[in-house]
Specification:
Elements lengths: L1 H16 L6 H15 L19 H4 L10 H23 L2 H14 L10 H15 L3 H15 L6 H11 L11 H24 L6 H7 L8 H11 L5 E5 L2 E5 L3 H24 L5 H15 L8 H12 L4 H20 L13 H22 L3 H17 L1
Antiparallel strand pairs: 1-2
Helix pairs in contact: 1-4, 1-5, 4-5, 4-6, 5-14, 5-15, 6-7, 6-14, 7-9, 8-12, 12-13, 13-14, 13-16, 15-16
């Protein structure tokens, strides 16, 4: 199996990433890295940070320059292949051979065009590494990794309370109204200090754009692959209009319900995360399943669901489930059918806005999103007794580990 996965990924470098439409994001990463390190006609070196990403994202983008051999597409893909391989062997070390195999297969099936062509594997592996470290009671380093993930992709910020609750439980679950134990305060200080320092450095380097990752993502419209976009599409069956939009480098779906759905998605994000935190606090959800459930909530409530976002959840699925599940194989396969195949099959690329999206294209997205929502609901509303049993099994596994 490892050899087959390796050969498949190596074949994707010339066949997919070097195709006409397979390396757009790598081109963007390369431009960001060049402008940051070398400067441009209107920006000196070490000043221009990525517009839509947190400041530490410049680190993976800089891999396109190392070594400076010209073919930055292949160079970046090889770096990501090395990171993927490191993740695979870490799974074999800290989980099992079967979990490592599940991780590899899900990544390949769901990330044909994104696994080696995006940087989302880096924050995803930082999160699963933090899970392993917390399981081994090495919480200080786990806080460092969550902070690094936040400075790279933002979404790990919402996973911090889950780590805090697990740390609090490991300390013996002190009374809620008592002064937090010193190790917990130290963990908060580690995380807060690193994140504040990261954005403080960004402010010094780029005073006008250091908060752009937040502002950029708050004004984006509903992207066509997101769950809110699927709701818009279903609403169009009932006579509520929805039409294509192409902006912010993505294909979107907009309509009169856009404002309402934006508000509802924010409420669903907050409510879903709070529900996960509460179930973990009350002992109905284990640490690992809380991380997985919260990441699913983040993905399903986001107004943007780029295909690489699936990579955020794959390592956690492999670490928590440790076996193949038909629903996850279907989610991975549908994601790849959507991108790159449906996008290119229906010529959804370039700068023009289509008059309408093909029904088959929207149906593939709807089917994938329905499966993801069903899995998320399963984590949010499990049978109480069964979930308590799962928590005990997971804790027993942690003690063995």
């Amino acid at each position: 199996m490892p050899a087959a996965v390796l050969l498949t990924l190596l074949a994707l470098i010339p066949l997919e990433l070097h195709s006409k439409l397979g390396h757009g994001d790598i081109d963007l990463y390369h431009r960001y890295a060049q402008v940051f390190w070398l400067g441009s006609f209107n920006s000196p070196p070490l000043r221009s940070l990525p517009l839509e990403y947190p400041p530490l994202s410049i680190a993976p983008f800089s891999l396109t320059l190392l070594p400076p051999l010209g073919d930055y597409i292949t160079i970046y893909a090889i770096w990501m292949l090395a990171i993927f391989a490191a993740g695979y062997f870490a799974f074999r070390r800290y989980e099992s051979g079967r979990a490592a195999e599940v991780f590899a297969v899900y990544c390949v099936v769901g990330g044909v065009s994104t696994l080696l062509g995006r940087f989302d594997l880096i924050p995803a592996l930082l999160i699963v590494a933090a899970y392993w470290l917390a399981r081994a009671r090495r919480f200080d380093i786990a806080y460092v990794l969550i902070a690094a993930g936040t400075l790279t992709k933002l979404y790990p910020l919402l996973l911090l309370p889950i780590l805090l609750l697990e740390h609090w439980r490991a300390l013996g679950s002190p009374r809620l109204l008592s002064i937090p134990p010193r190790p917990l305060l130290r963990g908060i200080g580690i995380f807060g200090g690193l994140v504040i320092a990261g954005f403080a450095i960004a402010r010094v380097l780029n005073p006008e754009g250091w908060l752009s990752p937040f502002s950029y993502n708050t004004i984006r419209p509903i992207q066509v692959e997101s769950v809110p976009a699927t709701i818009l599409w279903v609403g169009s069956w009932l006579g509520l209009p929805a039409w294509p939009d192409h902006s912010f480098h993505s294909f979107n779906l907009v309509g009169p319900l856009t404002g309402v759905l934006n508000s509802l998605s924010t409420l669903a994000l907050v409510g879903g995360c709070l529900w996960i935190y509460w179930r973990q606090l009350t002992g109905h959800l284990s640490f690992g399943r809380a991380l997985l459930g919260c990441t699913l909530v983040i993905i399903c409530t986001s107004r943007v669901f780029s295909p690489q976002y699936l990579i955020w959840v794959i390592p956690l699925v492999a670490a928590i489930e440790r076996r193949y599940e038909p629903v996850w194989l279907a989610v991975c396969l549908l994601t790849t059918l959507i991108y790159p195949f449906a996008y290119r099959g229906y010529q959804l690329y370039g700068l023009s806005t289509p008059d309408s999206y093909p029904v088959v294209f929207l149906a593939l997205i709807g089917a994938r999103n329905a499966l993801l929502v069903a899995v998320t609901v399963r984590h949010l509303l499990p049978h109480l007794g069964a979930q308590r049993q799962t928590v005990e099994v997971d804790r027993a596994a942690q003690r063995v580990a």
